[in-house]
Each structure stands twice: as C-alpha cells, then as structure tokens.
Amino acid sequence: MYEVVLVDDDVIVIEFLKKVIPWQDYDFQVVASFQDSNEALTFMQENPYDVLITDIGMPKLNGIELIDQLRKSNITSYNVILSCHDEFSFAQQAIKLEAYDYILKESMEETTIMALLERLKTKLDQERYTSNQHLKVTKFLEMTNKNEDVLKAQKYVQTHIGEKITLTEVAAHLHLNSSYFSRMYKKETGEGFVEYVTRVKMEKAIDLLDHSIKSVEQIAYELGFESKSYFLKTFKKYYNVSPKSYKYKDKKSV
C-alpha cells in the first residue's frame, strides 16, 4: 500500500479527494491531510510517505514553496500540484521542481485522479521491483564476498600450516577488521577461526603420526607450535590422549 499526503487550504477539495476517490482500488491510502502547509511540512519531515498532492495557492507556504522545502530536506516523493491558475509561470516552477503532474482544479474530476493513480501505481511498482532486485543482488554479492574471504582464509591456513597463525594476521592479509572477520567467519562456517586453525593442525598431526616416523617434537615444529609442551597440551585436550599413546597404544580411542 502506497501512502498519500493531501495538502489544500480548501476543505471541500480535501473532502472530495478523501471520500470520492477509491484510493484502495489502486493500492493507495491517505495517511494524512492538512489545510495548514506548515503543519504538513512538519509531518512529512518526520514520517515516510510516497505521494504528495498539494494545492499551489495557499497562505504561509504555497505548494511550490512546500515542495522546495521538502527537497531541501532531502525528502523524495512523487508530487502532484493542484491549481486554480492556468498560468505558464506556475507550470514552469512545477516543471523545475520535477512535479509528477500539474492538474487544474477546474478540470479535476474523479476519472482524472483515478487515471493519475493508475500511472503512479505503475511507476511505484516498477521502483519497488527494481529496489527489491537491487537488494537481492547486493545481498548475493555480500554473501559471495564473505564466502570468498572464508575460502581465502582457509587457503592461507593450509599454505601456512607450519607457522603460528593468528586471527589478526589473517584478517590483515584479507584487508579486514579483525573483529569483523572473526564474527563473519563464525557466522558463515559455524566454527570460530581459531577453532578451525586448531582442527586443521590436529588433523595434520594425526596424519603425520599415522604416516611418518617423525618424532613428536619434529611434528610440533612442523605444525608451527612454539614448543613441544604446548603441542602436547593441545593434542591431548583435542583428542583426550597424548600423541605418543595415540601412535603406539590407543588409536581406537580417537
């Protein structure tokens, strides 16, 4: 449903527009109506809406001045101007302010407004569709970029398995803020990055214990651990068994 604001100091015009026009048939609803253009301006600066239908000749702020104030407040909408004056100067100002339509009250009928609403609905539907498509593309690209960052981080770990790898170091490698990278990685994979690094190193440790004759100390060094004792502590915490026990006695417990 698209939202419409009516502004006209003539109450008869306001009532005609509110009661005679079948707004809902065209997916519109009148959310506010004003005889005072200053009150209308305050409302529109504080509330979202899609279409403004305003009289041009009003005290305080006329319709042209009202639209100009809204533009200065960076508020965008489709603006329709109603006028009792068939004067070229008013039409010029309306065009300059990119008014969607300029309607003379003398020729304003129910069918005129309904035709206007039909055109506006088509325009707004197209904009909404384009906006939704843009949002979908943006989300897809964001997801793709995140997935690429995850893959790059994992590749970095695989190719630097023999080094001490920190989250800060990898985030810097990807040109990302470390806190953002940490949250993003956990959200995308369901596993913390530090947990991933530990898992990869422990899986590699098992592979080396199974398929090499390297000592525990050599394996610890090859996997980038600062010391043998830290490797032993990490391995036992991860597999609930020491590397030596795994290799020679308790492989079935892993």
Describe the structure.
With 254 residues, the protein is an alpha/beta fold. 60% of the residues lie in helices and 11% in strands. It contains 11 helices and 5 strands; from the N terminus they run βαβαβαβαβααααααα. The protein has a 5-stranded parallel sheet with strand order 2-1-3-4-5, sandwiched between helices. The two termini are 61 Å apart. The relative contact order is 0.07. The model is unreliable at 250-254 (pLDDT under 50).
Helices and strands, with pairings:
Layout (H helix, E strand, L loop, with lengths): L1 E6 L3 H10 L7 E7 L2 H10 L4 E5 L7 H10 L5 E6 L4 H9 L4 E4 L5 H50 L7 H7 L4 H12 L3 H19 L4 H7 L5 H12 L3 H6 L6
Parallel strand pairs: 1-2, 1-3, 3-4, 4-5
Features:
5-stranded parallel β-sheet; 11% strand; 60% helix; 5 strands; alpha/beta; disordered C terminus
Strand order of the largest sheet: 2-1-3-4-5
Global geometry: rod-shaped
CA distance, first residue to last residue: 61 Å
- Round the mean pLDDT to the nearest integer and report it: 91
Which regions have little confidence, pLDDT < 50, spanning 5+ residues?
250-254
Q: What is the gyration radius calculated from CA atoms? A: 34 Å
Total helix count? Answer: 11
Would you list the SSEs in sequence order as H and E? EHEHEHEHEHHHHHHH
The number of E-state strands comes to 5
Helix proportion of residues, in percent?
55-70%
Structural class: alpha/beta
- Beta percentage is 5-15%
Q: Major sheet, described briefly?
A: 5 strands, parallel
